[in-house]
Amino acid sequence: MGNGFIKIHAPYKESFSCTEHWDGQFKSLGDALGTDCVIQKLVDVEGRVFQRTFRNQGFENTDWFGFGKDVLAPCDCVVEAIHINEATNNPGMMIPGRASSITFRNKDYTRVLLAHVRDIRVKEGQEVKAGEIVAKVGNNGYSRNPHTHIAAWSEDKIPLQIQFDQTTLGIKTRQEIAK
């Protein structure tokens, strides 16, 4: 951590894109300067290759290439808190409420939050290593499609910009991504 940002492990092994929450868009600590990451896949349509997030019209969670995929730990850290929301939203609609989430704390007391997850595989107090599978991509809380929301803040509760350690991004061939 330094200069208002944190470098963390990529959230997925698959190709993904993120949409950032701009400074001032949201005030709450878990949303301020957060980013929403969606798994993508290269899709061949009549000899043209496009990067897409879902098949068909995307009306089912299973249409989304990321739904149910592994979510990876952001750092070598401790699981500080877990919240479970059992509801699953249909794409394009949302059931208001707090999303399922995992809050991690690293050795300098920086927190990283992963939200809208499902099938959480860790427990509070557990130590994890960066890149370890901790959950699956879900669609719950204030969410309109399967994705992972990531937020971070310093010990003194200042939101941090997120940067992904590019050495942790999976390198796959076009054929592997298209599977």
Automatic annotation (TrEMBL):
SUPFAM superfamilies: Duplicated hybrid motif. Pfam families: Peptidase_M23. Signal peptide: none annotated. Residues 68-155 form the M23ase beta-sheet core domain. This is M23ase beta-sheet core domain-containing protein. The lineage of its organism: Bacteria, Pseudomonadati, Pseudomonadota, Gammaproteobacteria, Lysobacterales.
